Amino acid sequence: MYNNKIIISPSILSADFANLEKEIKQVEQAGADWLHIDVMDGHFVPNITIGVPVVKSIKRVTNLTLDVHLMIEHPEKYIDAFADSGADIITVHYEADGVKENTEKVLNQIKTKGVLAGLSIKPKTKANEIKQYINLADLILVMTVEPGFGGQTFMHDCAEKLKIIKPLQTDGQYLQVDGGINEETAKICKDFGANSLVAGSYIFNSNDYAKQIQTLR
Ligand code: DX5
Ligand code: ZN
């Protein structure tokens, strides 16, 4: 799945949920590589979004790689269900209950399902804290906003973590950013080594998805 191009993963959190199939087909035609699906439980983050049945339905209508971002406590309880619903990538939070004490085990649980395993850190978590797990994950997601909502402002100090993580990764591993990505912040992240960009409002709040995706890339 890996090549040298920048992977664009539109976050459907900013899409029109009443017309989700149409929105997904539009970003697919507009050149998206992956589809970012934000799962929130109202505990790990102060918001509730979508769950397993929605992922299952999305899988039926798109060929895009489903990039599932679990912002939930105890993700280990739901990994199998998300994998069976068609997730191609499952990213868990290092800070979540069930992950911090058992990071390697949870990443292995994801890989055992034949799914790429991602590990994410919130703004307050230092890159050094996950150093020992970087090589065990297929993807590291550096949050550049406090997780929970779309449309927030990019936190520049978070992007600095990319410079620490990048040299510890090997070829084929993904370094992803999520939160406040636009034309300007995408450039910063790419310069610091990110090869996968999540963008919600920048894409879905525009009327030309293809142009936005092209600009980010
Ligand atoms: C926030 C989510 C993001 C969100 C990004 O917790 O993880 O994926 O959709 O939205 P923008 O790109 O609008 O900051
Ligand atoms: Zn996300």
Summarize the structure.
The protein is of the alpha/beta class and 217 residues long. The chain has helices spanning 20-29, 52-61, 79-84, 103-112, 156-165, 183-191, 201-204, 209-216, and strands at 7-10, 34-40, 65-71, 89-93, 116-121, 139-143, 174-178, 196-199.
Structure overview:
The chain has 217 residues and is α/β, with parallel strands linked by helices. It has helices at residues 20-29, 52-61, 79-84, 103-112, 156-165, 183-191, 201-204, 209-216; strands spanning 7-10, 34-40, 65-71, 89-93, 116-121, 139-143, 174-178, 196-199. Helix 2 (52-61) links the parallel strand 2 and strand 3 (65-71). The longest helix is centred in the first third of the chain and has 10 residues, at 20-29. It starts with 6 loop residues before the first strand and ends with a helix. The model has no long low-confidence stretch (mean pLDDT 97). The structure holds D-xylitol-5-phosphate (DX5) and zinc ion. Zinc ion binds at residues 11, 36, 38, 69, 178, 198.
List the helices and strands and how they pair.
Blueprint (H helix, E strand, L loop, with lengths): L6 E4 L9 H10 L4 E7 L11 H10 L3 E7 L7 H6 L4 E5 L9 H10 L3 E6 L17 E5 L12 H10 L8 E5 L4 H9 L4 E4 L1 H4 L4 H8 L1
Parallel strand pairs: 1-8, 2-3, 3-4, 4-5, 5-6, 6-7, 7-8
The structure holds D-xylitol-5-phosphate (DX5) and zinc ion (ZN).
Low-pLDDT segments: none
Number of helices: 8
The value of Rg in angstroms is: 16 Å
Mean pLDDT: 97
Largest sheet strand order: 1-8-7-6-5-4-3-2
Q: Distance between the terminal alpha carbons, to the nearest Å? A: 17 Å
